[in-house]
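I have a small job for you when you get a moment. Would you make up a two-line entry for one protein for me to read? No commentary is needed, just the two lines. Write everything out right here, beneath this request.
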Amino acid sequence: MTASKQQYQPLNTTEDAPPPAYEAAVKADLAQLAGRATPPFPVVQAAQPRATAPMRVSGARNPKQVPVGLDGKREWSHGLCACLETPGLTAEAMCCPCLVFNANRERLVHLTQTGEPHPAPSRLGLWCCLYSLAPQLAGIGQVALQCVARFHTRQRYAVRGNAVEDVLVGAFCSTCTLVQEAREIEAEEEALRAGAGAEPARPSEGYYRDEEGLVQA
């Protein structure tokens, strides 16, 4: 027995309307989301990368506001070949380097021990005698003194450099390095006299401890 086509019921191809309870729940959820001040999920905003501003350390040991790198070091306030900006000091360093060397050492030691500028640094003293007699010590004594002095100056002011550079500069640019160190020390002394970054000395602590809290990004 075969069934005729009239006995089959056609399939329903139309969608039935959702139940009232479902529509009410959806409308309630939409109204709740629309009333929120912030979306329920984090919003990701795309932005172009920007260069980070260089860190600056202020205070008496960096009065020129030379940018400080991520390693905590900076460059000299004055270039090695900028000695012509101070012709008087350069002439003295060229003709009588022992006098400038003695003055630099006395000023730097006084700053390290007291945190204040030397009231009257002398150009004649022990360091002057040692510097004058240094060429007699195998011919390298003067270079050794220059290297040690430059290293101590770099340490106090967190200036970037290395031992090889100190040796080369001390051997071939003694006049320029004497002037460069003297101007770096003078910059701190002038800042201290003006009252920038002055505070009680802490000789036993880090050489940049007096400028903590003044770092600006």
Summary: Confidence is low (pLDDT under 50) at residues 197-217. Residues 119 and 179 are 20 Å apart (CA to CA). The two ends are 94 Å apart (CA to CA). Residues 55-192 form one domain.
